[in-house]
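ZP: hey, is the nicotinamide-adenine-dinucleotide complex queued? I don't see it on the tracker
AM: it wasn't, my bad. submitting now with these inputs:
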Amino acid sequence: MQLKDPTLLRQQAYIDGAWLDADNGETHPVTNPATGEHLGTIPMMGTAETRRAIEAANAAWPAWRKKTAKERAAVLRAWYDLIMANADDLALLMTTEQGKPLAEAKGEVVFGASFIEWFAEEAKRVHGDTLASPWPDRRLIVTKEPIGVCAAITPWNFPLAMITRKVGPALAAGCPMVLKPAESTPFSALALAALAERAGVPKGVFSVVTGSPKEIGAEMCANPIVRKLTFTGSTAVGRILMQQCAPTIKKLSLELGGNAPFIVFDDADLDAAVEGAIASKYRNAGQTCVCANRIYVQDGVYEAFAEKFTAAVNKLKVGNGVEQGVTQGPLIDDKAVQKVEQHVADALAKGGRLLTGGHRHALGHSFFEPTVIADVNNDMIVATEETFGPLAPLFRFKTDDEAIALANSTEFGLAAYFYSRDIGRIWRVSEGLESGMVGVNTGLISNEIAPFGGVKQSGLGREGSKYGIDDYLVIKYVCLGGI
Ligand SMILES: NC(=O)c1ccc[n+]([C@@H]2O[C@H](COP(=O)([O-])OP(=O)(O)OC[C@H]3O[C@@H](n4cnc5c(N)ncnc54)[C@H](O)[C@@H]3O)[C@@H](O)[C@H]2O)c1
Ligand SMILES: O=C[C@H](O)CS(=O)(=O)O
């Protein structure tokens, strides 16, 4: 890996301003999913190191919260500037450890940096209230204060942006944060920590602990010093963390699994719908929480859409993400490939019609062919489970009500998409979908300005936007008497 700044490749955890190995010296290997190449190692830390990071955060909190919002904003802005200045290295690190094409990785770095920029600005817009007192001798004042030490656990699929979407608002609000990144993609997180250190984030305010998810997570959940846990990952792990946080009544933000419906109505612009479906389905090889997971096409345009869509899928270029023109990299590991294989086999066994792909790619490792299956029905696993891979199942439907009912038929509710040019239909369907986010005539909806999050079992809370900082604040009411 040829970095312009080789010091951005860190193989130690970052705790209380120090770069450390695990107490017991144990390490965990990190590999390139496109080649199987050994990239390096990270410390296999556990309970004791996590506890020290939490205690260091608590010690650093008073000084950090005492800084003015403007002073915190200046540090965040400096961090943003360093992330952008090192975007090429951060993108190469990401492609090498996660597999996504370099262009997507660069896009994620810019997207991730935008949360630091945004919350540097939002830091200065945390306002309270004065209320109309019911008593002549007392005044009612409402202030917002940082909640305290925060812990974060993040996934491998967006190894930088899922971190900045949490650390940005936490630090802006005046909270310190201890992060556990995914063990598959730690180098992006550690490079972010190196840049935070250079930006002047005080020691203890942002620490990165690497190692045993269960041990580190258990300490984050059980330690009463931690007042808030923010998690991005699967719904299954979200449930575990929610249960583990109950004894200490922590504030929770949960960004969990998705299973996005993508509905194409008969009045849609089919070329636009194909473009949107490609963007939504195959971004990050389908390993995206807001990916189109179920594509519903109205009867009258089903075959036309299937033909156009399949032709577009066949233009995708599978390869090592560092190679020019590659638009789909490998899946994160063989377990991910096996899940896609299971979904494909199940669909074909139950009457699905393979239009393209369907097999492990000739490149080997964890590459998989971009796949489209038609004539998909609700008895198939893909109708209810998140595939998290490059498989597009095409379902048919007849009426608007049927489409909405099918779209809402899972326990998830993160993102949903549909294409129509009828304004009445757009309002009726947008309001009928049980989803935290709805894309209308677009397959790409994520940005730092809009509230990101789900309903039902896709999670709790919102990230980004003017709403995102609220999850790191508590409201205090002061009744000022004696007047
Ligand atoms: N809603 C969102 O914003 C969002 C974003 C990205 C991914 N996701 C979801 O995440 C899933 C894929 O990511 P993943 O495979 O990394 O998810 P995952 O839940 O397996 O892992 C996520 C993180 O949790 C850690 N972890 C796993 N078990 C743990 C435990 N028992 N205690 C503490 N930590 C534990 C992992 O090490 C990793 O850091 C998909 O379901 C996807 O939809 C959701
Ligand atoms: O995978 C989950 C991410 O949140 C997707 S996005 O980058 O926010 O669209």
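AM: back. DSSP finds 13 helices and 20 strands in the chain.
ZP: great, adding it to the tracker
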